[in-house]
User: Fold these one by one.
Assistant:
Number 1:
Amino acid sequence: MSAAMSQAVPVRQSHWPIYLMVFGITVMWSANFIAVKYAVEEMPAVLAMGFRTLAAGLLMVPIFTSAGRSAAEKRSLRADFWTLVALGVGGVTLNQLFFTLAMEHTSVAHGSLIISTTPISVLLLARLMKQERLTGRKILGMLVALSGVVLIQLTPEKSSGAHWLGDLFAMCGSLAFAAFTVFGKQITKRHNSITINAFAYFAGAIVMLPLIFWAGGTLDLGALSTRAWLAIAYMAVFPSVLCYLGYFHALNYVAASRVAVFSYLQPVLATLMAVPLLGETINSALIAGGCIALLGVAITQRG
């Protein structure tokens, strides 16, 4: 996930349609794990990520250009141009590249659980930058989450497809997004999600373009299956563009803390999808470790 948090605006209407929309967004983000797995089965992770970024960047062009901006917003955009580019490449492109590499080397169950601990990475980095303070409850939550991840890693019977290298890539992706969240805290208050995501994918597409030619130079693109191309299309349209726009629309009506609760469902939904669609198997240690890790994250966020 990449984007800025905003304050909810009280609106006198039923919130159930918003919650249903957020649940649908969560399902689509969870399904992205499956789509990436399908893509990297037939092409290198760098190429899959490059196609996703390029397609998402093209989709963001009409959205970005059609958004109205005041004179003050235009001045702010010019002033923050290179900062937005750096944040987009460092926090979004790098995050999604590590995520794609993770799915190439580990199971959905492992990768999704490790990524779900991102709030802890954000908290630790924010503490180093003196943006947050650590309370006893937050420290307890981090220790609980860490114990869950350690249990998953140390169990002798890994879930099918799991590997420490992919888990490491997932952790690196988590750290990249944490850096985006912390270092971009001020700038994300001055620009909306459309601007931030547009710059992320515009800049990311430029950076990834040489890698697309490099990674795809020896690959017969005509031999790729329809499923692989549909997976790329899904990655670009839904998790990269539509989900973020819907997510930020929800934040206009519901408190961010309530919307964030749905993120706990992602590893559960992604794993449930991976069992029938990818043939992954899970074991008791993974279930126990996952529950402990998610509990730790919940304690930390409430600390």
Number 2:
Amino acid sequence: MTIFVDTSAWFARFVTDDPAHSRVAAWFASNTASLATTDYCVDETLTLLAARKRPRLALEAGRLLFDEVVAQICFLSIDQIRRSWILFQQRANAGWSFTDCTSKIVIDDLAVTAAITLDQHFQQFGVTILP
């Protein structure tokens, strides 16, 4: 079984003063399933860390993510990006980000049934929400 990891979970895992850090870090520490994320989630995570004035942490997280130490990175194909754009046009009014749409497409393509996230939009994806 593969579990999808969203930006919100990466941020909470890496940022020790995030309110969800303890809960998310404990989940990661006890998890034995394989993890997958996307290049869009990696981009969003590193950008968010840098924007929140944590450049050193962004570099550390980037090394862990790009070395695929903590998860496999699924790089979106042009077809997946185009399908994400179609989905975004349908779901933007519901508050979904473009990255949410790319995550949904990859989750569907990989037949993932669970995701670790703090993003409420994932409840609409039809997956089990962790932690």
